[in-house]
Amino acid sequence: MREETPATPYDRLRAARPELFGNTPGGIDILFDPADVEEARRTAGAGAENTGAEHAGAEGAGAEGAAAPVGVVYADRFVTLVRDAVRFPGGAPGLYVRMLSTVASPGAVVLPLTPAGDVVLVEHYRHATRSWHWEVPRGMGAPGATGAENAVRELAEEIGAEVTELISLGRMHPDSGLIGDHVELFAARIDDFGSPETSEGIRRIVPRPWPEVAEMVAAGEITCGFTIAVLTRALLNGLLLNGLPGNGLLGKGKPGNGLPGHGLPVNTTEGTGEKH
């Protein structure tokens, strides 16, 4: 039996998610011709200068070179690590690593808002940093689920809340130099919340007025990029009361004044989304 090579799952990934492999004029082109791929591997192995290796994920000097597999180099049910052969805008070939979610469903970040306009935060332990973090509920997508469905599920799982109104705040790219996926941002109006989901590493759920949350961000007490992003979007779209502390220029809307036409129907879904 022929041993499966890294290129085989790479081809499957290309077929399943072609949007991840398009080339744009003036950008970094992915190379597919075998001769071009070999040239890129040799160039990376030789440590050629000016290959574009200053980019996050780009491999130049010190890379494995001709021995480095090109294609899917690691995959589990959470993440897929891909090494592409590329040609940089300056014309030099090289290798570039990307990280993708294995499930093609957008992760969701949800800002819970109480009837009083308070922001609901969770204190969540994160293995990657070996630290406790103040965050809003978030998680990876479940197979076949939309971002809105993932958002509703995350609130139910992490804080035991039911959504009365879900407001889309668009998408964000957590690390555009390395991670190929986007997540979807939402604000959610809730009437109440439950107990912490301790099995998920959550030890506290606390409602806080927006000015206090803003001070936590300014003081570096909130360091989660997803949380800071969704708070910023909500503020700039008038969803947070009282604006910025000592400022009063932004966010002085009334409860319910979101983006026109951005309210989404709430459909509770069953799923097994993963936490990251």
TrEMBL record:
PROSITE patterns: NUDIX (PS51462). One of its GO terms (biological process) is nucleoside phosphate metabolic process. Pfam families: NUDIX (PF00293). GO terms for cellular component: cytosol. Residues 266-276 have a biased composition (Polar residues). Residues 103-230 form the Nudix hydrolase domain. InterPro entries: NUDIX_hydrolase-like_dom_sf, NUDIX_hydrolase_dom. One of its GO terms (molecular function) is hydrolase activity. Its cofactor is Mg(2+). The keyword NAD does not apply. Gene3D superfamilies: Nucleoside Triphosphate Pyrophosphohydrolase. Residues 43-55 have a biased composition (Low complexity). Keywords: Hydrolase. Residues 41-61, 255-276 are annotated as: Disordered. This is NUDIX hydrolase. It comes from Streptomyces telluris.
